[in-house]
C-alpha cells in the first residue's frame, strides 16, 4: 500500500509541472498583461511610465526567466503580490477559500440527499410511472444551463417570495442557499441518471437473482449488496464534483456575488493579474491531483479486485 501511494505521488509531480508550465505559457501568449489593462486606455500615461512599471513587475524579462522566478518563489512559499491590488497573493487566495469550501460542502450534501435516493427509486421502479416522471425532470434539469437556473431561482425566491437575498452578503447559510440550490439541481439531475444506471446494472446480475431465489428480502439485497457494489460509481461522480466545486464555480459565484475563488479567478483573468491566475491554476491542479489520488485509494479499499491487482504490481 505504501509503495502504491508513493508511486502515485511521484507520477503526479510531472503532471503539476506540466500544468503550471502550459498555463504560464498560454497567459503570456494572450498578447496582453496587467500593465496594458491598467494603462492601455489612458492616453495621458507615457510609454516610459508603462515600460518602467512592466520592468518593476518583471514582465520585460524572457518567458523562461519569468517562469523559473515564479517557480522558485513558490517553492519558498512566496507566490508574489497581485499586479492590481498590490496585496500578497497567497493571503488573498486563502481569504477566499472559506466561501468556496462552504459552497462545496452544501452543494455536495444537497446533491447526495437528492440524487442517490431518487436514483435508487427510479431503478427500483424501472419502467413505471415514477421512473418516467423522475427521468423527465432529470432530463430537464440536466438541459438547463446554470446561469438560467440561477436567474430563475432569483426570480422565484428573491423577487417573488422575498425569502432569500438576491446577492450574497457575507459568509452565511442564507446567502449560500441560492448558489447551492443552483449547483445541486444540475448535479442531482446528472447524477440521478448515473446512480439509476449503476443500480440497474447491479440488479440484473446473477448474485441478485440468486439471492431472490433463496428468499432474501428485496430491501436487504438493495441496501446491503446492490448499493455497496454501486459505490465505486457514486464515489467517482462525487470526487469529480468535489474537484470542480473546490476550484470555484465562476459563473455562479459571479452571478450571486459569492466571494469565493471562482469569482477571484474571473476578476484576475479580466485584469490579466498573472500571479493571482497562477495561484488559481496551482490550486486547481493540486485539488484534482489529490481528488484523483483519494479516489484511487478509496477504490483500493472498496474493491478487492483492485486491491489484489495493486499487490501483484507492487
* Main sheet makeup: none
Order of helices and strands: HHHHHHHHHHHHHH
Give the terminus-to-terminus CA distance. Answer: 8 Å
Beta-strand residue percentage: under 5%
Question: Roughly how many Å is the radius of gyration?
Answer: 24 Å
The helicity comes to: over 70%
Spans of at least 5 consecutive residues with low confidence: 310-314
Number of helices: 14
Total strand segments: 0
What general outline do the C-alpha atoms trace? Answer: globular
Mean pLDDT: 79
Question: What does this molecule look like?
Answer:
This protein has 314 residues and is mainly alpha-helical. It folds into two domains: 2-75, no CATH class; 94-313, MetI-like (MetI-like fold, Orthogonal Bundle), CATH 1.10.3720. It has helices at residues 2-28, 34-39, 47-56, 63-75, 89-124, 129-143, 146-160, 173-203, 206-213, 218-246, 250-255, 261-270, 274-302, 304-313. Helix 6 (129-143) crosses helix 8 (173-203), helix 7 (146-160) packs across helix 8 (173-203) and helix 8 packs across helix 10 (218-246). Mean pLDDT is 79; it is low at 310-314.
Amino acid at each position: 500500500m505504501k509503495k502504491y501511494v508513493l508511486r502515485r505521488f511521484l507520477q503526479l509531480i510531472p503532471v503539476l509541472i506540466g500544468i503550471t508550465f502550459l498555463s504560464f505559457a498560454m497567459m503570456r501568449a494572450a498578447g496582453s498583461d496587467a500593465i496594458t489593462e491598467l494603462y492601455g486606455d489612458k492616453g495621458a500615461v507615457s510609454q516610459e511610465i508603462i515600460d518602467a512599471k512592466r520592468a518593476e513587475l518583471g514582465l520585460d524579462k524572457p518567458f523562461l526567466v519569468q517562469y523559473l522566478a515564479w517557480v522558485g518563489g513558490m517553492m519558498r512559499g512566496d507566490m508574489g503580490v497581485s499586479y492590481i491590488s498590490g496585496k500578497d497573493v497567497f493571503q488573498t487566495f486563502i481569504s477566499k477559500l472559506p466561501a468556496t469550501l462552504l459552497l462545496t460542502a452544501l452543494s455536495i450534501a444537497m446533491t447526495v440527499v437528492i440524487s442517490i435516493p431518487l436514483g435508487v427509486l427510479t431503478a427500483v421502479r424501472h419502467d413505471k410511472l415514477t421512473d418516467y416522471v423522475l427521468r423527465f425532470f432529470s432530463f430537464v434539469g440536466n438541459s438547463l444551463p446554470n446561469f438560467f437556473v440561477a436567474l430563475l431561482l432569483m426570480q422565484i425566491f428573491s423577487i417573488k417570495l422575498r425569502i432569500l437575498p438576491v446577492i450574497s452578503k457575507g459568509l452565511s447559510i442564507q446567502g449560500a442557499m441560492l448558489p447551492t440550490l443552483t449547483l445541486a439541481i444540475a448535479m442531482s439531475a446528472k447524477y440521478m441518471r448515473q446512480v439509476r444506471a449503476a443500480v440497474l446494472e447491479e440488479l440484473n446480475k446473477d448474485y441478485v437473482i440468486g439471492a431472490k431465489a433463496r428468499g432474501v428480502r428485496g430491501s436487504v439485497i438493495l441496501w446491503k449488496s446492490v448499493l455497496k457494489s454501486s459505490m465505486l460509481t457514486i464515489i467517482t461522480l462525487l470526487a469529480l464534483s468535489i474537484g470542480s466545486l473546490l476550484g470555484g464555480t465562476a459563473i455562479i459565484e459571479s452571478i450571486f456575488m459569492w466571494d469565493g475563488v471562482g469569482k477571484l479567478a474571473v476578476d484576475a483573468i479580466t485584469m490579466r493579474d498573472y500571479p493571482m491566475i497562477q495561484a488559481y491554476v496551482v490550486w486547481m491542479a493540486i485539488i484534482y491531483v489529490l481528488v484523483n489520488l483519494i479516489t484511487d485509494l478509496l477504490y483500493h479499499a472498496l474493491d478487492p479486485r483492485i486491491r489484489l491487482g495493486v499487490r501483484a504490481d507492487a
